[in-house]
């Protein structure tokens, strides 16, 4: 039980960092993905990591792309839950057309 504070800190950190993709894709004037935007962004990141397409995030080297891939995998279940809870909002919000 000596590690309990460390375990709690780790769990809180993971919970605070997760679902960021869902929130990021719902920012103002962002209309790339209408439904489940967090899941779609995580899938896009994973696809870019696997296929080495070189998203702007990965210009800093392969280590960052590996970390982004790991984060996308960890974030995906949390983004799924948040995207599901926000599905009515996504369906009713007006779309911005350029």
The number of helices is 5
How big a fraction of the residues is strand? under 5%
Number of strands: 0
Helical coverage, percent range: 55-70%
Query: Tell me about the biggest sheet?
Result: none
Uncertain segments of ≥5 residues (pLDDT<50)? Answer: none
> What do the pLDDT scores average to?
77
**How many whole angstroms does the radius of gyration measure?**
16 Å
How far is the N terminus from the C terminus? 56 Å
Order of helices and strands: HHHHH
Quaternary structure annotation: single chain
Looking at the structure, what is the overall shape?
Answer: flat
Structural class label: mainly alpha
What does this protein structure show overall?
By secondary structure, the chain is mainly α. Helix content is 66%, strand content 0%. The protein is built from 5 helices and no strands. The chain is flat. The mean pLDDT is 77.
Pick out its properties.
flat, single chain, 98 residues, mainly alpha
Topology, element by element:
Blueprint: H1 4-17, H2 20-25, H3 37-51, H4 62-85, H5 87-92
Helix pairs in contact: 3-4
Care to give the gist of this entry?
The chain is an all-alpha fold and 98 residues long.
């Amino acid at each position: 039980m000596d590690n309990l504070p460390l375990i709690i800190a780790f769990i809180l950190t993971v919970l605070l960092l997760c679902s960021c993709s869902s929130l990021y894709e719902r920012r103002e004037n962002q209309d790339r993905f209408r439904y489940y935007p967090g899941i779609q962004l995580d899938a896009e990141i994973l696809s870019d990591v696997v296929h080495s397409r070189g998203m702007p995030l990965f210009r800093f080297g392969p280590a960052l792309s590996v970390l982004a891939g790991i984060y996308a995998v960890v974030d995906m279940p949390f983004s799924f839950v948040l995207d599901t809870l926000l599905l009515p909002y996504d369906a009713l919000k007006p779309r911005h057309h350029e």
